[in-house]
Amino acid sequence: MKHLSGYSLFFRLLPLVGLLCLVAPAAQAQTPISKSIRIIVPYGPGGATDALARLIAPYVGDEFGQQAVVENRPGAGSTIGTLAVAKAEPDGLTIGMIDAAFITNPSLVSKLPYDTLKDFTPIVFIATSPLVLLVNPSLPAKTTQEFIAYAKANAGKITFGSAGQGTGAHLAAEQFKVQAGIEMLNIPFKGAGEAITQLVGGQTTAMFSTQIGSKAMLDAGRVRALAITSKERSELFPDIATFIQGGLPEVDASTINGLIAPLGTPDDYVKRVNAAVNRALKTPELQAKLKQQGFVTVGGSPNDFATWIPSEITKWAKIIKDAGIKAE
Q: Are 186 and 160 in contact (CB under 8 A)?
């Protein structure tokens, strides 16, 4: 057998050494996750944001071989739970679920306890849930344009219910008012359930609601839907026309949900969570569950979400300022 000299062996092993040098940093770059991951939801159990977090959690946990646990931290218009995310260690063990309040609170709350654009790392835009314009069945209007004509003919008499001052339903109605050129008075209630009950009873003229929040009343014929804010007709309610079809393409308010992390969370971790959620959104099982609850999947990269957030904050800041809305 021919023996290799030291120099010959070195040069023959050099390519392997180089390959190991390339692989080693990649392995070291993986953020170690050896404990369960908590997903903070800034609302109590049972709402749409909480439900979505619980649907997504297993996919996030599976990515790291750990359990992802939903932790509800309600209060102060979602700011308590969101602040908990901002203050958490950026070690990948804490991420947060956000909704439209994350976008509107910078304009509604005079002194937020965190900086929306500087204290977080956007991970992924998960889904939107379009809103439906509802009216009491006794109203003669059966289309968006008929409602606008009715509102103009009854100036000062049109009211709309909302789940509270500055909520998504309220802002949707303010956006609709501007685009339609009509006047409506906001009647804030303690929640969406009370608002729709008052609409059914005829105490208010109209309101905006999520699809799932209005489904029971729509199915029972106790309210009438005139339009939906999605770009295309809903699979849940295919008979409801879009605002685009009704001639008001800029009425596009919807609830939104996404994941964020504390600022400084490692890029590799953010990318892995993003990839896990994007894969999950393509599975038939999760797609079916989301459609049943009126969600429209979005997905995309962390950069996509990071670019979208400030543009939406600017958009809604103008609507909030023009309407003179302040959080309760």
A: yes
Beta partners for 255? 129
Can you give the pLDDT at residue 25? 44
Pick from 300, 260, 298: which is nearest to 123 by CA? 260
Q: Do domains 37-127+255-323 and 130-228 have the same CATH topology?
A: yes
Fold classified for 130-228: D-Maltodextrin-Binding Protein; domain 2 (3.40.190)
Closest CA to 182 of 208, 205, 203, 154: 154
Task: Show the tokens assigned to 153.
Answer: 């003919």
pLDDT tens for 153-189 read 999 899 999 988 888 889 999 999 999 999 999 998 8
| 270, 125, 84, 33: CA torsion to nearest 10 | -30
Quote the crossing angle between the two packed helices 168-180 and 144-153, to the nearest 10°.
Answer: 80
228 within 8 A of 241, measured Cβ to Cβ? yes
CATH topology of domain 37-127+255-323: D-Maltodextrin-Binding Protein; domain 2 (3.40.190)
Measured CA to CA, the distance from residue 207 to residue 253 in angstroms comes to 13
223 by Cβ neighbours in 10 Å (0-12 / 13-18 / 19+) ranks as buried
Give the pLDDT confidence of 17-61 residue by residue, as tens digits. Answer: 454 444 444 444 688 898 999 999 999 888 889 999 999 999 999
Give Cα separations from 137 to 52, 150, 162, 199, 225 (angstroms).
31, 14, 18, 10, 9
Give 241-258 as a DSSP string: PBTTTTT-TT---EEEEE
Ordered by start, the domain boundaries in the chain are 37-127+255-323, 130-228
3-state helix, strand, coil in the chain (%, to 5): 45, 20, 35
